[in-house]
Write a structure and sequence with these properties.
With about 500 residues, this protein is α+β, with helices and mostly antiparallel strands. The protein folds into three domains: about 90 residues, Nucleic acid-binding proteins (OB fold (Dihydrolipoamide Acetyltransferase, E2P)), CATH 2.40.50; about 260 residues, BirA Bifunctional Protein, domain 2, CATH 3.30.930.10; about 60 residues. It contains 16 helices and 16 strands. The longest helix has about 35 residues.
């Protein structure tokens, strides 16, 4: 049985199998926090119940030792999960010693090097559980809307978006590439099935180590025949709302472990703001306010608040360190102060990062040139003014992919849409309406200096039964990062691959 089932066995004797997440002891009792992959349970192992031999073995257990503990299930709302196990028996599968990831704080690079072990931590466990719920909700949404799941190839002979970020490989003597996107194939499948979605790995050879980029990630890409950009945006909004609401409902404990403010996610129920590119640029540069808030003035005010809080935090750290150094206080008081110091230092790291970032965001916004794509800084400045995702549509066609349809009312713009998540997370969805004209497509393929011969199959989709159609792509890891409020996407996938990282 598992820890999630304890509520069904109150007062009964059961056996839990798992790993020692943490252990503390007194002279006659050992307290073990046992994790079993489903949750956690505090197990109380007393010398009178176990006998001296087993009790001594319990006292010797190292972190991540594998065990089976038999005992009576007792209700205790103070404990994780609301139950504890009063042990009557213990079986040790392996007594692990010198586990390399201790309860002290470790650097990120150290933890990524130990990713195969880091996954066992409570925080990483919670993230993976949320990821699982997101995946389930994705399939549930599309299946409930009569989409057909289909699969695009991973080996491709052509680029979907550009040639600069492709992983090239030898395919029986011919050059082939790991897929950037399944979209082009998705369009072909939509012409057969009406509505489809693909869900698979995609690859980008970007030499980037930012918090938003991975070299290998999972992409969800629906395509819909007889669908324009506005119907596409309706689908995106309904999709994101359904997924986030599913996570809120199914993962409250996991979100609590992560310290996620659920109220920030509950705003998903409200309609998403929709901004044209022109409107978004006005807001970005401070020429237009959002409900009385100005992007530049808000940033300047935030910087003042950050600077003041840094001084306060440093002063409090110094005061508490002096209290400890002075001596003559109880161990509990020392531990309390040290805990506060550790929390303040973590807060200080975040504040100092904002102190460095805000001037850069201000400069980026002030210097933004109309007609450019939004960078990460620009997306951050925009989304700080909103409490839910925003949709930016009708982009200058020069900066969008060759397959994006021109706005028939103003051909300067392409009917693309980017969805930007709040709280500084930036783009999580990119999509739009696809060009239906073979002539326009050929022109754009040539303009992007792509090999026309490898796109002949794609042009067939316009030669034989071309219809208005739309779709979008969503990176699973970026979505999970926003939902969990993580600093880096590397925590959202079991074994991250990004520039410079191939192991473990």
């Amino acid at each position: 049985m598992h820890t999630k089932q304890l509520d069904k066995y109150v007062g009964q004797e059961v056996t839990l199998k798992g790993w020692v997440a943490n252990r503390r002891e007194s002279k006659t009792v050992v307290f073990i926090n046992l994790r079993d992959g489903q949750g956690m349970c505090q197990c109380i192992l007393g010398i009178e119940d176990l006998g001296e031999e087993l009790f001594a073995e319990a006292k010797s257990l190292g972190q991540e030792s594998s065990v089976a503990i038999t005992g009576k299930v007792v209700v205790d709302e103070r404990q994780i999960g609301g139950y504890e196990l009063h042990a009557t028996g213990l079986k040790v599968y392996q007594n692990a010693k010198d586990y390399p990831i201790s309860n002290k704080e470790h650097g990120v690079e150290f933890l990524v090097d130990k990713r195969h072990l880091w996954l066992r931590s409570q925080r990483q466990w919670a993230i993976m559980k949320v990821r699982n719920s997101v995946i389930y909700a994705i399939h549930n949404f599309f299946q409930s809307q009569d989409f057909v799941q289909m699969d695009a190839p991973i080996f491709t002979g052509n680029a979907a978006e550009g040639t600069t970020d492709l992983f090239e490989t030898d395919y029986y003597g011919k050059p082939a590439y790991l897929t950037q996107s399944g979209q082009l194939y998705g369009e072909a499948m939509a012409m057969a099935m009406g509505k489809i979605y693909t869900f698979g790995p995609t690859f980008r050879a970007e030499k980037s180590k930012t918090r938003r980029h991975l070299s290998e990630f999972w992409m969800i890409e629906p395509e819909m025949a007889f669908c324009d950009i506005f119907e596409n945006m309706d689908t995106i909004e309904a999709f994101l709302r359904a997924v986030v609401q599913e996570v809120i409902e199914k993962c409250p404990a996991e979100l609590e472990i992560l310290g996620r403010d659920i109220s920030k996610l509950e705003t998903i129920a409200k309609p998403f703001p929709r901004l044209s590119y022109d409107e978004a640029v006005e807001i970005l540069k401070g020429d237009k306010d959002v409900e009385g808030q100005n992007s530049l003035k808000t940033l300047e005010s935030d910087l003042e608040i950050v600077n003041a809080r840094i001084l306060e935090a440093k002063a409090e750290i110094a005061e508490r360190e002096a209290t400890i150094a002075a001596g003559g206080i109880k161990k509990g008081v020392i531990n309390f102060n040290q805990s506060k110091i550790d929390g303040l230092k973590n807060e200080l790291k975040q504040l100092e990062e904002e102190q460095r970032n805000i001037p850069n965001w201000l400069k980026s916004a002030r210097d933004f040139t109309y007609g450019n794509d939004f960078g990460g800084s620009d997306e951050t400045v925009l989304t700080r003014l909103f409490d839910l995702p925003i949709m930016v549509y009708d982009w200058p066609h020069e900066i969008k992919a060759f397959y994006m349809k021109r706005n028939p009312e103003d051909p300067r713009f392409a009917r693309g849409v980017d969805v930007l998540a709040p709280e500084g997370y930036g783009e999580i969805v990119g999509g739009g309406e696809r060009e239906t004209s073979e002539e326009w497509l050929v022109e754009k393929i040539n303009e992007h200096k792509l090999p026309l011969d490898v796109f002949q199959w794609y042009l067939d989709l316009r030669r034989y039964g071309s219809v208005p159609h739309s779709g979008f792509g969503l990176g699973l890891e970026r979505l999970v990062a926003w939902v969990c409020k993580l600093d880096h996407v590397r925590e959202t996938i079991p074994f991250p691959r990004y520039y410079g990282r191939l192991e473990p």
